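My current task is to audit a protein record that another person submitted. I have pasted the whole thing underneath without changing anything:
***
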Amino acid sequence: MQSASDRHEYPAHWEADVVLRDGGTARIRPITVDDAERLVSFYEQVSDESKYYRFFAPYPRLSAKDVHRFTHHDFVDRVGLAATVGGEFIATVRYDRIGADGMAASAPADEAEVAFLVQDAHQGRGVASALLEHIAAVARERDIRRFAAEVLPANTKMIKVFTDAGYTQKRSFEDGVVRLEFDLEPTERSLAVQRAREQRAEAHSVRRLLAPGSVAVVGAGRTPGGVGRSVLGNLREAGFTGRLYAVNRAFPEDLKELDGVPAHRSVRDMGEPVDLAVLAVPAEHVPEAVAECGEHGVQGLVVLSAGYAESGPDGRERQRELVRHARAYGMRIIGPNAFGVINTSPQVRLNASLAPQMPRPGRIGLFAQSGAIGIALLSRLHRRGGGVTGVTGVSTFVSSGNRADVSGNDVLQYWYDDPDTDVALMYLESIGNPRKFTRLARRTAAAKPLVVVQGAGSAPQGHAVRATRLPHATVSALLRQAGVIRVDTITELVDAGLLLARQPLPTGPRVAILGNSESLGLLTYDACLSEGLRPLPPLDLTTEASAEDFHAALARALADETCDAVVVTAIPAIGEASPGDAALAQALRSAAAAAPAKPVLVVHVELGGLAAALSAAASTAPRAEGTPHARVATEDTGTRWPVPVEAPEGAHLIPAFPAAERAVRALAEAVKYAQWRREAADPGKVPEYEDIDEKGAAALIGGLLARGQGLTLGADETCELLGRYGIRTRRAIPAPTPDEAARAAGALGYPVALKATAPHLRHRADLGGVRLDLADEEQLRRAYAELTELFGKPEELRPVVQSMAPRGVDTVVRAVIDPAAGAVLSFGLAGAASQLLGDMAHRLVPVTDRDATSLIRSIRTAPLLFGWRGSTPVDTPALEELLLRVSRLVDDHPEVVAVTLEPVVVAPHGLSVLGASVRLAPPPARGDLGPRTLPTY
């Protein structure tokens, strides 16, 4: 409890879990008067050298006065934060607000002195950097804009913490002390530093789970069967390269081994460290197991146990407590209710999962929340050859269950710089943090393909994350903008993944088609047209074609500069001259190897042997001696899978597809992804406009928000705010009577438009609520009478008079700030047809000039803007500028939470904004601009 003199209640929202540089976790929280004993114990474990660096003099122990000072804070002018592991302090930081004279002060003084102390055993883990991020965020919340720190020159580690943070700073040296002063406003460099640290820390935390040096299976039973015993067997059979332990409190005291694995009744009984613990015990026994693991120094947990958030409110509370408990000890969790994890690296060979077989090592990373989906993905990859080439398959596999802690975002951080993963495949039932996922996906996709099946589920149960209000289709569009290859089914996921892993990216959409079936070639041609590709006329080699004919035709197609990819179609042939599966596969591989820069795909019909020979990937099970197609029983499906023949070392291998549509769809995704990669290399820029009055708009918004927490602006206020950003709107004058309509028209000048603005008639010209080109007062009064006769009294219609705009194409521009995804700019054509089709395109704000150009071309009805069927093309550069100005408005002023411009009439020269609405509200917190934190519970 804080004393009566303290001015603010305990700020619980400052509490946070963070991932440190080495992958472990710590909890950051405010220091209170109840922490006196913890502070003293912490200080006793700090070396004399570190104490000297902190106080500039020998300081062996804290006095009672010191303890009081360092534990009594008002959470405004004096704030202290501690990083804790296992409930004990490992580091502290505090600031004291000071005035211009360097003495203690209160607001409006906006500078504070800051000082750190990190326990020696935890130095080098990035604790001070994390604390600096959090204390800076606290200071900004309390209107402190600048930190000052005095450091001894020999304390190079602390100087580096400050200088590496990326803030704008000044440095001076006086009286033997280095004085650092730095602004706390985030900069591009400080955000880049923060995100780079986040990536390293989160990647390392996943690496500790996927590449442990030792594993303990807690809950391994004495009798065969059961989850724990099965996982123990899977680890043994996979050939795990580290130390393995079986743990069960029901073991007899004299039991020393289980299946040749050292057996213990408790993790506490082990004399050696354990990196990873797999928990396969009932949910009610998990807390005890977590405590044992934490006290023993276990680094991470895979929790297979069920009975958590998936089971209802009580389970959700158990899950929250599980996460809090594990993080308190610095451990991260995969699960609960997880299927497990796999790492096929020869240096690890980890199968800590319920999969009875270890996938073949390879270059594809897999992530799925659901165990059932995980099984399906592994099974399909196995049936399709198990991987990319004869020596590849899966690199890592994570099935996260309830993903209470480690999520797809964490695994993306790991895959980003994982040298063993070339392609990432993800099945996401929901995206709990779209803003962060989109940011990570964009960075990952710039380095390696990321293919995603996105479910329509809600946020993970038990998570305290903001839910997105965006439609499912909008989130999908934003993922594509970030370079994600978005597919609809796990079949398409595997198809695209295998193609991208086996073949180079196409340089364009031109496709050559050749094969021994005219009909199959035409089907492939039609499929290419449907997917937006540019197929060349199919080459029919006839059913008499030999392997040599296929080789020669493929070699010619690959040498043709007018094609970017080749699809080979093959059907079974009859006759002595027809090629065998192995011969045809070798002919195609040989031709493709001579021109490795272009992708080659094969569409085969009922040619199981050819598909196997092309992928040429063997099962993990041993192949019978002299048997080219041994068959392997699989426990997960009960089916028997063919084991393809082995390909020659270094052979150029080709993906095979059982249907033309599947092959072409995968190729189309590769073409779009390659185009995105080329464009991502030059993302464009956010233009500057000299006529934008950012400060004037900020003052106007501040004054308007002073009226209340959220409001929709009136017409005059909307015009004024938009005008500050160079967005001109045509004035609409209310006309509650015919006489006032006539006076308004006289002021504006004829011709005019008369519009009903009632909600059920607004923007619905198809209902007859708009009269255009009224040339004089007589026509205006006649139109007024017609509207009131058709739709009711003027007070119901809310008629307005507006000057006529040049004719053009009616469009709509919208911007909205979503609490989870951030600011989104949307564009489409106005009218019921586009609304019914959902023909809107979306981009994340801030929008660059290249984004604006692509945005207006992304809708299906875009041809109407560019002279469709002989019409005059409209002024798309003016439209692009409008989009950029709206983007700037919502990016500069997050209080602008919604903007709608409808209709925007784009003429051959210029455009006219005929309707506009703006909504203001206090902006939602920007988690991506704050300090690094893990999701809260």
The CA atoms of residues 341 and 398 lie 5 Å apart.
